[in-house]
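Protein in question reproduced for absentees:

***
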Amino acid sequence: MPPTSDDPVLSPRTSGRRRFLTAGIAGGAVLGLGGLLTACGSSGGSGGSGSSGSTPAVGGSSLNQKSVKQGGDDYAAVIEKMKGFGTDAAPGVYPRTLRHAMGETVLPARPTRVVVLDTGELDNVVALGIQPVGIVYTDGSKSLPSYLKDKAGSPAAVGTINSLNLEAIAALKPDLILGSQLRAQDQYAQLSKIAPTVFSLRPGYPWKQNFLLNASAFGLEAEAKTQLDAYQAAAAAIGAKLGDKRPTITPLRFMPGRTRLYAELSFIGTILTDVPLPQPAIEQVKELAVEVSPEQIDKADADWIFYGVYGSPSSTNQDAVLGGALWKTLGAVKSGQARPVSDETWFLGLGVMAANVVLNDLKGFVAPGS
């Protein structure tokens, strides 16, 4: 199935490559993203020399966006590679040059017509008070996320995360396009001819760094930092309320053809780390997720299990798992602490607004009154 917002993009050659943990979690396939970048600023083909004013980054050869594998040290190094991203321009000063995954892009003026190519970028711009003119949808939903509907305006659809409609994007006459190298490197040169285009390395767990990068296009880095600081304070407040009594948490997701236990290098994994709330040993890995079969669902057991479903439940094994005998043996299920949660915030939101919704959910479940 196509990847979802917190996932790497896998080619047919790499999607079948599975690395298995052999100590304590035998049988769980680990899903990660090693070898994302040999050089984080490798060129995206022509270098985007059109209206974006973009220049290709130096070092490394052109990298196919699907040339990824599961596992490996590069997956955990993405945040380190993003430290040089952003701008040296003072707030409100234009033109400004932004350093990003594909090199440098010049913005002649503050953007007013932005197209976003993933759910994280959508969350980011709306959090900054900006209504995008164009958005993509996930393969699991063709509508605006409900938690953003009253703030996002009425943006036009420009395809899906995995199938961009370049003609629709061009028709909107954007003055900024925000996306990621992992998602759309192959289309970067074409997008840059439409409008200045700024790419993060990847969506997902580096969501805080992505927020700051996106904010720098609008001169709103200070506003983004203020929101991130408020989020961190809210996470710490939950942890303080819990004290030493911190329950283990399993984020479980049902998807077409697979069932995942999300791990440390996922959006939800970062939120649990920030509180902090521990995860079972199987999920304490520097990876996106661990995939389990329905016969291995006992590996999901924790004090609390929060489960979401991507797309239609009928296209997943959710009903079979939740109705199965093994599920009923789990401690969280017996204690009434296995709860459904919103997939669009817990697993697809990938931004500060979704993160705050997740914190509120966690607070209500595990730390009421905090």
In short: The chain has 14 helices and 16 strands. The first strand starts at residue 19 and ends at 20. Confidence is low (pLDDT under 50) at residues 9-26, 33-72.
